[in-house]
Amino acid sequence: MLTGKQKRFLRSQAHHLQPIFQIGKGGVNVAMNTQIAEALEKRELIKVSLLQNTDEVADEAALEIAQATNSEVVQVIGRVIVLYKASSKEKYQRLTQQLKLL
């Protein structure tokens, strides 16, 4: 579980990121969750955007993805979801190392 201070740090890091996944009319599915999990393993922090044509609600989609990928929702702002998961590989743990210092 992330502390408030850690979430603030992650939000500041995510500010400059572009969404790398888009949820469209297909909604959240298993294949997408698998791809998101792989991206989180390498990047630790990603943004997912909901397109206009989706029936998904941002908060619900965020929780669904977080549960499926075992990640944490850092922020949901409008139609953009910010997710964080510590990488299991040390070479990708850039953010995890900084979070431990907070």
UniProtKB/TrEMBL annotation:
Q: Which superkingdom?
A: Bacteria
- Which molecular function terms from Gene Ontology are attached? RNA binding
Q: Which residues form a coiled coil?
A: none
Give the UniProt keywords, A-Z: RNA-binding
Report the Pfam families cross-referenced here.
Answer: CRS1_YhbY
InterPro entries found in the cross-reference section: RNA-binding_CRM (IPR001890), RNA-binding_domain (IPR051925), RNA-binding_YhbY (IPR017924), YhbY-like_sf (IPR035920)
Q: Where is the CRM domain?
A: 1-96
Keyword match RNA-binding: yes
Which NCBIfam families does the record associate with it? RNA_bind_YhbY
Q: Can you name this protein?
A: RNA-binding protein
Source organism: Enterococcus cecorum
Q: Which gene encodes it?
A: yhbY
